[in-house]
Design brief:
The protein folds into two domains: 4-217, Gcn5-related N-acetyltransferase (GNAT) (Aminopeptidase, 3-Layer(aba) Sandwich), CATH 3.40.630.30; 222-372, Jelly Rolls. Helix content is 36%, strand content 26%. It is built from 13 helices and 19 strands. Strands 1, 2, 5, 6, 7, 8, 9, 10 and 11 form a nine-stranded mixed beta sheet that branches. A four-stranded antiparallel beta sheet has the order 12-19-14-17. A four-stranded antiparallel beta sheet has the order 13-18-15-16, with no helix packed on it. A hairpin with a 4-residue loop joins β3 (43-44) and β4 (49-50).
Length: 374
């Protein structure tokens, strides 16, 4: 019997048969490949669907309205199958305190464009979370794009290791969720708190988490540092404290190690990056010509082309030193702009000035090259 969760007209269900699953596999392709322009290792471009080697060992949940699927996600149970790259992506050996039966991997989460600013995502995640806790899961591991880190952290996920780069989809941030750490969920006011308290038989203290993953402790001062620096950044010129706080609340903060490629040429991304600390280089290749390199430092932005017009990145961005960045996700910003349109006007105005200045500088560099006969 199919388990469902209803709210108004939206129904959350578990995919039980191949027909349901195939509809979801096709939706994966439509959203990630056709809309978001992502490279996907497991994509079947001829039949336009995505199914990978974890699907048969996972549970797939989806939200639907009047028979139309509007969101879906997958949970892979550690007791059944571990992802091939589990150590590289999640560092699973550091979670040896948990049995495989107590670990799951959440991934393939997506929502159709028309429903991205609705409550559907929260409904789907709560439904999956409840099923995982009932099953005895104590640790959920996942990864996401840089711009969605803030959203996941508001739910209860935590950064715990260095970032990773997938050959197909590029730069991603690993995250961990301790389902029984009631104190932490209460501290951050997680929307999962009530469900966790009603289903959890014992509190799993997160103290060991900080002791094991020093990365977490190092990130705690980022908010204070970033909030101070943002006031001097051109992208936020003319913002008052209240408007700046709204940007901070809807953004993500990341620390990225040196010599990491954040954006590769051809990558698809909806994220806008602002450098808060450190240096990176922007490389724009032109045929067989020598790459044109622009140095990025505090206050500079990158990723603006893909952020604005949804195209594959024509350039590459690599870190030269450890850096800290603020990341704005396009869909989250659009949701905020609907509530506070004046913030969107200021942000886009400032971003347009930055793009014009960068274009002017590049024209100046080309003129100098022509003068020197380069």
């Amino acid at each position: 019997m199919q388990a469902t969760c209803k709210s108004s007209e939206v129904i959350i269900s578990k995919a039980e048969n191949e027909e349901e699953k195939m509809m979801i596999y096709h939706q994966r392709y439509q959203i990630t490949v056709e809309e978001m322009l992502q490279n996907q290792k497991w994509a079947n471009h001829q039949e336009k669907f995505i199914k990978d080697d974890l699907d048969d060992s996972s549970d797939i949940y989806y939200a639907h309205v009047d028979g139309e699927i509007i969101a879906n996600m997958r949970i892979t149970w550690g007791a059944l199958k571990l992802p091939d790259n589990a150590e590289y992506v999640y560092g699973v050996s550091k979670f040896s305190r948990y049995l495989l039966e107590e670990i799951c991997f959440t991934n393939r989460l997506m929502v159709v464009k028309e429903w991205r600013n609705s409550m559907v995502l929260g409904m789907l995640l709560k439904y999956a979370f409840k099923n995982a806790v009932v099953r005895g899961i104590r640790l959920d591991l996942t990864f996401c794009t840089p711009g969605l880190v803030g959203l996941y952290e508001s739910l209860g996920y935590r950064k715990f290791k260095e970032n990773v780069i997938f050959p197909d989809i590029g730069f991603r941030v690993p995250l961990a969720f301790l389902t029984r750490d009631i104190n932490y969920l209460n501290k951050i006011k997680s929307p999962f708190l009530r469900t966790a308290k009603s289903l959890t038989v014992e509190n799993d203290s997160g103290n060991w988490f900080k002791e094991t993953f020093h990365y977490v402790a190092e990130m705690e001062s980022d908010f204070i540092l970033s909030n101070r620096i943002l006031k001097a950044i051109n992208l936020f010129d003319g913002f008052n404290d209240g408007e700046l706080q709204k940007i901070v609340d809807s953004s993500s903060f990341l620390k990225i190690e040196s010599r990491q490629t954040i954006i590769r040429e051809g990558d698809a991304s909806n994220d806008l990056f602002v450098v808060l600390e450190g240096q990176a280089e922007l490389i724009l290749k032109s045929g067989n010509q020598r790459p044109v390199v622009e140095m990025l430092s505090v206050g500079d932005v990158f990723g603006e082309l893909s952020f604005l017009i949804s195209v594959r990145s024509p350039l590459e961005v690599r870190t030269l030193t450890p850096i800290k960045v603020l990341v704005v996700d396009k869909s989250i910003l659009q949701k905020g702009i609907k509530r506070f349109p004046y913030i969107g006007v200021k942000l886009m105005h400032n971003l347009s000035k930055i793009i014009c200045q960068r274009q002017f500088q590049q024209i100046g560099s080309l003129s100098l090259c022509f003068e020197r006969g380069i």
